[in-house]
C-alpha cells in the first residue's frame, strides 16, 4: 500500500513537472496529449493522480488565467484523460472571488464544456453528483460576493458585470440540461447537508436582492429571466417550476380522437354517472392531453355533436340530446367554477362570462363540416341551441349569442333546404328542452301525500309511458342530477301503493292498484335499461328493491331460478293456485283473493315451476296454461313482468330442448288479451299505456336471453325479428367494429354496444389484445397517435379491468416475446408506453371517484327540498286535489351539485392518492418483470420501452404518481436509498451517453 502511495505521489510530481515544461516550451494541446500519455499507463485515469487539480492550480496562479493551461485541461477532457466530475470539483474549490479575470476565464471554460458533461465509468458516477451540487454552490457564492459589492458601492465594475453575465449563462445551461438536473436531484439526496447549505446560500442571496434592489437579467434569454429565477429552479428542484423539456415533446395535438369515443361510451353505457364524476374524468383527460380549458370545452361540445350524428330514431337519441344540450352546460359550469376560470364583464350588460368558453366557441366555429352537417340534420342553428343553454348558466351573455349566431345564420339558412323533411331530430331537441317542466311536476307530486294526489299522480306517470316520454324523463333527470330523487320517489310511491286497506273500496282501490302496477314497471324498465345498481341503495329494503335484487333477470348478473322457487311461501302458493283456478271457473280470481300483491310477485316463480312440471308430465293443457297466464297479466301487468323474468332466468339454466315451453309462455305473456278478460282489462285505468310498457319490458328480457350462447337454435328461428346476436365469429365481429371506427374516425352508437358485448363475452384480455394488435399495425406517427386515442377511449368500457389486462398480461407477454404478440419496437413502443401511463392514471382517479359516490342517505334531504325545484315565475300549474304543483318552464335553474370531487382539485393541490387493489398488485408484478431487463448496461428495445414508460409516468402524473413509483422493487430509483441513487445515476448516465453518441453520429 505504501508502495502504491509512493508511486502515485511520484507520478503526480512528474505530471506537475511536465506541466511546467509544457508551459516553458509552449506545447500545443496535441503535444501535451501525446507527452502526458508517457506518464499515464493505458486504462488509468488522470483523476488518480489529481491531474485536473494540477492543471487548474497552474492556470489560475496569476491575476489572470493562463489560457494555455486551460487548453490542456480541455484537451485532457476530450481525450478522456480526466473526468468531468474531477474538473467540476476542482473549479468549485476556487475561492479567490476578487480575481475577476480568473473567474471570467473559468466561467468561460465551464460554458464551453457544460453541455457535454457526462460520466464514462462507474467510479465517476458517485463523484459527479456531489461535484454538480458543489459547482452550483460555487456559482451562488460568486453571485453573492458581487451582490455584497453592489450593496457597498451601489455600482458594479465592468469586470463584475462580466462575471455576473457569465454566471447567468452557466446557470441557464444547467437549468436547460435535463441530465444535469437529474444529477443535481440525485446529489440533493446524496449529500443533503451540502444541499441545505446551498438553500441557505440562496435565501441569503434572495434577501440581498430585495435589500439592494439589484436584478441581473440573462442577456441571451428572450424570456427576460433573472439570475435568481435560474437559481430558484436549481435550489427548489420542483418539477412544475423547472419547466423541464417533456419526454413526449410537449406539443398539444392538433386533432384529438379520444373525446368523442369517451363521451359515447360514458353517455350510452354509464348514463347515470354523476356530474362530479364526469368533471373529474374530463379534467383528468385535459391534464393528460395538455389541453387548455378552452380546447377542452370545444372538444366536449364537438364530441357530443359527432355522437349525435347517428342516433336518430334509436332508443338512445333522447339520452344523447339531453346530455349534449342540458348536461354539458352543467359540466362546463362546474369545471369553470371549480377551477376559478377566467372571467370578464360584458360592457353592455355588466354580466360576467367565461373567457375560456368564448374562445371554445371560436374554436368550434372553425370546425364547419361538423356544424354544417348537424345544422342540416336538425334544421336549426345548432350553435344557437348550445349558446342559449350556456347563457342560463351565466357562462356567456346575450351579446355572445347574437355574435356567434350571426356568424352561423347565413350558412344555416341555406342548409335547412337540403333536408327539410328530416325533422325528427329537431323535434327531439324541442322535446328535450320541454321535458324539464313535467319532470319537476312529477318530482313535486312524488314528494307529496299520495293519498291526496294519487289520481293526478297516476295520470302524470301514465302520460310518461306514451311514445319515448319515459326515456326523455329519465334522460333529463339523469343529466340534471334529479335521477336519485326520481327513483326514491317511485320506490316510496310503490311501497305506499302495495298495501290495500279495508277502508279503500271502488275507485280509490283501483287507482291504488294501478299506481302500484305503473311504478313497478317504470322502475323495472329503468333497472333494465341502466342496470339494477341505479335502483338499489345500501340497506334499501323496499319491496321493489328486494324484488329486483333477488328475482329480476338482468344482464351480467346471474340469478338462480330454483332459489327463487324455494323462497316462496307454500301457503301463499296454494292460495294463489286456488284464486287462478276460480278465475277459470268464473269466480272472482285474484280480484277476490286476500293475497297481497307483493306476496304474489314473490310466489309467481314457484307457481310457474309447478305449471312447467305439470306441462312436461302432460297433467295440464296449453289452453289451461294460457288462461292462467292471461289471468295474471289481466290483473296486473307487473305480474306478467315477474313471470317473464323467472321464465327467462329458468331458460338460461336448462337444456336447449327444455327451452321451448317456457319461451312459449313468455310469448303468451306479452300477447294481446282476448275474450272476457280483455273487456275487463280495458276497463282499468290507462290499460293501453301499461300494457305497452309491459310488452317492451318482456321483449327486452327475451332479447337478453337470446344473447346467451345456450339458446335453442329453433327459438332463434322462431323469433328472427328479435334476434340481436350476430352469427359471425367473434374475430369477424371485432373486425367489423374496427372497420366502422376506422372509416369514420369516431365511435358509432351500434359499434359502442357491439364492443361492450364483445368485452362481456370474451373478457378484457381478449379485447385489449385485439386493440393493441391494431395499434402495432400502424406505421406512421399520426396514425399511431390517432389509434392510441381511440384504443384508450374504448378501454373506458371497463377501464379498470382493461388496464389490469394490459399491464398484467399483454405487456409482460410482449416483453417475454410470447407467440402471437407484437414485438416492442419504436415508434410503437413509445405509444404503447403512453397508453399504459394514461390507463394507470385514469384508473387511479376512477378508484378515488368511485370511493366517493353518493349514497341514498342524501336523497332524503333532496326530497325535503323538492319545493326549491319550482319557482313562482312562468309556472304551469297542475291541480292535484287542491294542491298546486308547479312545473317549471324551460329555464335556467341550477340543480344542486356537490362540490367538485377532491380528486379534481388535488391535481393542483398537495393531496396524493393511494393505490388500491388490484392495480397495486398488478404494478408490483409488472415492475418485477421490468427488473429482468435492466440488469445490464445494454440499451435494448425492451429497456428503452421501460425507460419511456417510467419517463412518461413521471411527466404525466407528476407528484400524484409517487404512490406508483414507491412500488419499484429493491429501491430502484428511490433516491432515499443508496441503491436507488446508484441505479438512478447509472441509468441517467447510460441514457446521456447514448444521446451524445446519437448526436455525434449526426455530426
Automatic annotation (TrEMBL):
Predominant subcellular localization, coarse grouping: nucleus
Q: Which InterPro entries match?
A: Mediator_Med24 (IPR021429)
A Gene Ontology MF term for this entry?
transcription coregulator activity
- According to its record, what are the GO cellular component terms? mediator complex
Q: Any idea which UniProt keywords this protein has?
A: Activator, Nucleus, Transcription, Transcription regulation
Q: Does the keyword Phosphoprotein apply?
A: no
**Localization of this protein:** Nucleus
Q: Name one GO biological process term.
A: positive regulation of transcription initiation by RNA polymerase II
Instruction: Please give the family membership noted in the entry.
Output: Belongs to the Mediator complex subunit 24 family.
PANTHER family cross-referenced by the UniProt entry:
MEDIATOR OF RNA POLYMERASE II TRANSCRIPTION SUBUNIT 24
Q: What is this protein called?
A: Mediator of RNA polymerase II transcription subunit 24
- Name the source organism: Anopheles stephensi
